[in-house]
Amino acid sequence: MGRLLVVEMKRIFLRRLVRVFVILAMAGALLIGIIVFFQSNAGDSDVRFALEQHERDLARCMDGEMQEFGFSPQKSLKDFCEEDAVPISSYDPRFRLAEEADEFLLGISILIIILAWMFGASAVGAEWHTRNMTTLLTWEPRRTRVLIAKLVAAVVVTFVISMFLQAWLVAALLPASIFRGTTEGADMAWFVDLVELMARIGFIASTGAALGAALAFIGRNTAAALGAGFAYLAIVEGLIRGLKPAWQKWLIGDNAAIVIGGESENLIAGRSVTTAALLIAVYVAILAVAAGAFFKSRDVA
């Protein structure tokens, strides 16, 4: 199994589709970094005036003059003022790495997940299209081992690539924060939170790759896996949200949003990140079992 897994991981890494999209994603991240660098170009006087205005508004908020903006008793007045009513990011024209890096990661998370789905689907679908699956089963006739190796390889490779692309984006933003912004607040606690966010996005990307690969085993081509995924997430889950709101807590999209966001975000009351992640993992396992049943019962010719 170990040798087969290594071979499958190498095959995914060497696929032209994977390399092309990774290069394009890296180029896009560099472009984002360049744009942010040149947009974060406030003069010292502008920054000083903005920070002074922030201090005045913060003092007003702490005096109780801004609670009409939606003060919640679940937060202290200080946290409400600093995070909701008068966040410094709304005043400071410079790029603030500690406040904005996670927003960029959340913004690109959907793109990473779509790419992951494509990677997983193509890693299996292309094997059927080129008839390499027949050759592979000649070398390793135990189909369950082949299926597990391909699914695990898709999960591992996708997680590594997603973490790399997110780290690449943060690195692309560093020049803007160092030379034309500020790294204030970017301490070890912030770094740990950032890595946790990256890992949650990587987890959802990996599960997306596994789902895409499992669907490709069932449909025996990449297009079927991509089409089925789009139809379910965009159409079926949309209809369920509209017609059966009580079923929303069982939907993949809503639970994925909880995992990525790190909280329920008013989507599903009482649903924790761990529970949402476990539910998605169960769905992946169920679809993998179904894919195994199809794979074992059908001819590969």
Separate helix tally: 11
- Give the tally of β-strands: 2
How confident overall, as mean pLDDT?
84
Radius of gyration: 23 Å
The helix/strand order is HHHHEHHHEHHHH
Strand order of the largest sheet: 1-2
Shape: elongated
Strand content: under 5%
Could you please describe the fold and organization of this structure?
The protein is mainly alpha-helical. It folds into two domains: 2-40 and 96-297, no CATH class; 43-93, no CATH class. Helix content is 77%, strand content 1%. A two-stranded parallel sheet has the order 1-2.
Tags for this model:
mainly alpha, two-stranded parallel sheet, elongated, 2 domains, 301 residues, single chain, 1% strand
How does the SSE layout of this entry go?
Layout: H1 2-13, H2 16-39, H3 44-62, H4 77-85, E1 95-96, H5 97-129, H6 132-139, H7 143-179, E2 181-182, H8 188-219, H9 222-243, H10 252-261, H11 273-297
Parallel strand pairs: 1-2
Helix pairs in contact: 1-7, 2-7, 5-7, 5-8, 5-9, 7-8, 7-11, 8-9, 8-10, 8-11, 10-11
Quick summary of this structure?
The protein is an all-alpha fold and 301 residues long. It contains eleven helices and two strands, in the order ααααβαααβαααα. A two-stranded parallel ribbon has the order 1-2.
